[in-house]
Fold this protein.
Amino acid sequence: MASSERPRSAESVPLDLLPVIRSSGVLTDRQLQEIRAKVIQGDYPFDTVDLAERLVKEGILTTYQARKFLNNKPHGLIVGRYIILDRIGSGSMGRVYKARHPMMDRVVALKIISPEIASNERVVARFQREMKLVGRLDHPNVVRAFDADQFQRVLYIVMEYVAGMSLGERLKKGPIPPMEMVEYAAQAAMGLAHAHEQGIVHRDIKPSNILLGRDGRVKILDLGLGVLMEADPSSSFATADGIAVGTVDYMSPEQACGRDVDGRSDVFGLGCAMYHMMTGRLPFPGSSPIERLGKRLSGRHVPITEHLPDLPPNLVRLIDRMMAHKPNERFASAAEAAKALEEIVRPQPAPASPNVPAPKSATIVTGPVTTPPTPEIIHVEPEYPAWFAPLARLAEQRPIVAMTAIASTLFLTFVAGALLGRMF
């Protein structure tokens, strides 16, 4: 609140701040009039710094905007249809800002390409072609692009704003546990697989281009911008030695040699990023970019087991395969790499055994158990004709005599039958 000693007439309003805000274009005329009226009424402080702090506290300005106004630097806060809210970071190809689309009230991430790159007509043409492909991307593990344009010679791309941090920022807190990193890498590989299906190779996979949202979801950033590196090799992101800053430690050997690349190059970069984030060490160490590049082109990486001796053998083999020197020795695609990573973090269940009929369940009987009685064995005498009884008793007492008698009887019966047959 303004003190009673401070004048409150219209002529005494601190016009040194309000004109600066007006020239920026971030507030409407109506908003500016309301601020002016509240200063006159004493609802807002008269002091310029205090007023700026009050506007930040009430959410009318952001801290970044207020700082720019107090330093009398209002220009550059409007890019196309977007109002710059804050600066998120900067990289080799430009700066990234948090911005808002006023009409849609959508918060986005806006990347302004470095003027040195955007001034190259070849780069602009390549950028425009690539953005048509980027516009097709729609995957939960890819940062979506909403818009891309050129405004007053400023080349920019508007992307989905992801609250969280890059894995590069996460690495500053210390190495990432292996299984946690495998989970992140599996998601990143799935995002890359989607991009490759649309004909886009990232070309610049590194920890700072992998975003970790607050919900634990990983998203690939800067898809489509890697072509700018190839379109303008002499741009500001190259060192005096002609090597891209921030990419040499993750780029594939074929990319470093300037050869054509495909999705397997991104698989190599992801493997290098995994190695670095799990160990805190580079897979191809050296005191200069030239030395590190030389090791990449001439030999294998330092075995990861030198830093993590207890790493599971299947994970060691997977990383070695991702970073194989020759593309045909790596996973054939990012989708194949994603599947292998998934199997490590979430092993597949063993295959079910052949179908065998389940045994019938036993009946459970409650109460006392009684032994069933032994069944009584009943001997049943066979029934014979009356005339056969004497012969049966003779067979029991004198079996040989009985057999002779039976044989004689059968013979006599046969002879008698034959005689009777001749008579009749």
Remarks:
- The first strand starts at residue 78 and ends at 79.
- The first helix runs from residue 18 to 24.
